[in-house]
C-alpha cells in the first residue's frame, strides 16, 4: 500500500533520553497502538512506526498510494526523520534537565532514577485540544477509544498494515458539521460531544485559519507548518507576541476548556514547557510531597491551579511541565509497580491505566440527565402509590 518503500531507519537515542514505552502511554497522546514490539500511529499524512532498543530508536513511514482528501502526501525527499525529531522533541537534552531538577528538588532526585526517558511530545495542537476535551472525568483507555472513533468516523483512511486500518486525525472542518454532536453522542462521547462540535465550529467560523497554531511557542515549531507571530485578533493591543499566559487565556474561551485542559494543550500541543496541568494526581503530589494544605472540596479553583503551577515553575524552571510529567507518571500505581527496579532493562509490557481525572466542569449534562431520570422515576413511583391507595379506598367504600 505504500507510495514509498517502508524501510527501517535508526537514530542514536539512549533509553535515558527517550523511553517510548513510557512516553507514548503515560497520558500525553492517545492514538499510539502497540503491535508486538512496534508502536504505530498516523502523523502528518503517513503511518509512522517506532521501535527501540537500548541504544537506538528505529522508525519507518508508510504513505498512502494516492492523494487523500485533507492529506498532502510528501513527494521527493522523505521528511520523516525531521518529523520524528520534532514530534519527540529530540532537540532538548533531557539528561541535562534531569540533572538540574535533581539538583534543585530532593523529591525529584529520589524518584527520577526509576523513570528516566520521559519526554513531552510536540503534538498537533488541534489533536491535543480535542483529545484533552475528551479527558473530562475519563481515563486513558476510554480517551484512547474516543480518539480512535473520531479517526475511524471522520478522519481520512491512509491505508492498512497487517489488515489493520489507519485513519488520520479529523480536521476541524470535519467535526464542525451540524450532525456531528448527535453522532458523537451515539458513539458514547456524552456531554463531550457538544464541546467538540462547538469548538470545531468556533475554529472554522469565528477564528481565522491558523489561529490555534499561532498560539504556539516560537521556540517549538510544529513540523510541516509555518509558525508566525500571534495574530492581532488574539492580542488586546494588536501586537501581542505569543506567550504561555496568552495562549492559556485564549484557550479558556473555547467550549469545554478549563484551566487543566488549557495547560495540557499548552504543554503538549503548543510547546509551552512551563505549563503545568493540575489534576487529582498532581494535587496529590503537591499535598504529599510539597506541603500544600488539603482541601475539603475536590473542586480545583483557578487560584489553586495557578498556585500549584507557579510553585512548580519557580522550583523547576521553564521546563516545569516536563518535570511534572515525570512525577505524574511515578504517581501512577501501575507504572510504579511495572518499572520499579527495571529501568533500562527489557521491554516494558503494556499496562492498562485507569486514571480518573477531575475536570473543571463540575455539573455535566450527564449528571443533570441522571438526576432528571431519577426524579421522573421517583415521581412515577409516588403517583403509582397514590393510585393504589385511591383504588383501595374506593374498594373499602363499596364494601361498606
TrEMBL record:
SUPFAM superfamilies attached to this UniProt entry: DNA-glycosylase, TATA-box binding protein-like
Reactions listed under catalytic activity: 2'-deoxyribonucleotide-(2'-deoxyribose 5'-phosphate)-2'-deoxyribonucleotide-DNA = a 3'-end 2'-deoxyribonucleotide-(2,3-dehydro-2,3-deoxyribose 5'-phosphate)-DNA + a 5'-end 5'-phospho-2'-deoxyribonucleoside-DNA + H(+)
Region of interest (Disordered), ranges: 216-241
EC nos: 4.2.99.18
Regions of compositional bias (Polar residues) in chain numbering: 224-233
GO molecular function ontology, one term from the record: class I DNA-(apurinic or apyrimidinic site) endonuclease activity
Keywords: DNA damage, DNA repair, Glycosidase, Hydrolase, Lyase, Multifunctional enzyme
Residues covered by the HhH-GPD domain: 134-325
InterPro entries referenced in this protein's UniProt entry, alphabetically: DNA_glycosylase, HhH-GPD_domain, HhH_base_excis_C, OGG_N, Oxidative_DNA_repair_enzyme
Origin superkingdom: Eukaryota
Protein family according to the UniProt entry: Belongs to the type-1 OGG1 family.
Full protein name: DNA-(apurinic or apyrimidinic site) lyase
Native source organism of the sequence: Sporothrix eucalyptigena
Originating gene: OGG1
Amino acid at each position: 500500500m505504500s507510495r514509498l518503500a517502508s524501510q527501517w531507519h535508526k537514530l542514536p537515542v539512549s533509553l535515558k533520553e527517550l523511553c517510548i514505552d513510557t512516553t507514548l502511554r503515560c497520558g500525553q497522546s492517545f492514538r499510539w497502538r502497540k503491535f508486538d514490539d512496534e508502536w504505530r500511529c498516523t502523523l502528518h499524512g503517513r503511518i509512522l512506526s517506532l521501535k527501540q532498543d537500548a541504544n537506538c530508536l528505529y522508525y519507518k513511514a508508510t504513505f498512502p498510494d494516492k492523494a487523500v482528501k485533507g492529506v498532502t502526501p510528501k513527494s521527493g525527499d522523505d521528511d520523516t526523520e525531521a518529523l520524528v525529531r520534532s514530534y519527540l522533541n529530540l532537540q532538548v537534552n533531557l539528561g541535562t534537565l534531569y540533572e538540574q531538577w535533581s539538583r534543585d528538588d530532593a523529591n525529584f532526585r529520589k524518584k527520577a532514577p526509576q523513570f528516566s526517558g520521559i519526554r513531552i511530545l510536540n503534538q498537533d495542537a488541534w489533536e491535543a485540544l480535542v483529545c484533552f476535551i475528551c479527558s473530562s472525568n475519563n481515563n486513558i483507555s476510554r480517551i484512547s477509544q474516543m480518539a480512535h472513533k473520531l479517526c475511524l468516523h471522520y478522519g481520512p483512511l491512509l491505508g492498512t498494515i497487517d489488515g489493520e486500518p489507519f485513519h488520520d486525525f479529523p480536521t476541524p472542518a470535519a467535526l464542525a458539521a451540524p450532525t456531528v454532536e448527535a453522532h458523537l453522542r451515539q458513539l458514547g462521547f456524552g456531554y463531550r460531544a457538544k464541546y467538540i462540535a462547538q469548538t470545531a465550529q468556533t475554529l472554522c467560523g469565528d477564528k481565522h485559519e491558523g489561529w490555534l497554531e499561532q498560539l504556539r511557542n516560537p521556540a517549538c515549531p510544529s513540523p510541516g507548518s509555518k509558525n508566525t507571530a500571534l495574530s492581532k485578533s488574539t492580542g488586546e493591543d494588536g501586537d501581542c507576541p505569543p506567550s504561555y499566559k496568552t495562549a492559556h487565556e485564549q484557550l479558556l474561551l473555547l467550549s469545554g476548556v478549563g484551566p487543566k485542559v488549557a495547560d495540557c494543550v499548552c504543554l503538549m500541543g503548543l510547546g509551552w514547557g512551563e505549563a503545568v496541568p493540575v489534576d487529582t494526581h498532581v494535587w496529590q503530589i503537591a499535598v504529599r510531597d510539597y506541603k500544600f494544605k488539603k482541601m475539603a472540596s475536590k473542586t480545583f479553583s483557578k487560584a489553586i491551579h495557578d498556585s500549584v503551577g507557579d510553585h512548580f515553575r519557580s522550583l523547576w524552571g521553564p521546563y516545569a511541565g516536563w518535570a511534572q510529567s515525570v512525577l505524574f507518571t511515578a504517581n501512577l500505581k501501575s507504572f510504579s509497580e511495572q518499572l520499579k527496579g527495571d529501568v533500562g532493562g527489557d521491554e516494558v509490557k503494556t499496562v492498562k491505566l485507569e486514571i480518573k481525572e477531575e475536570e473543571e466542569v463540575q455539573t455535566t449534562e450527564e449528571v443533570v440527565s441522571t438526576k432528571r431520570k431519577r426524579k421522573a422515576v421517583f415521581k412515577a413511583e409516588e403517583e403509582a402509590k397514590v393510585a393504589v391507595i385511591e383504588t383501595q379506598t374506593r374498594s373499602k367504600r363499596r364494601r361498606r
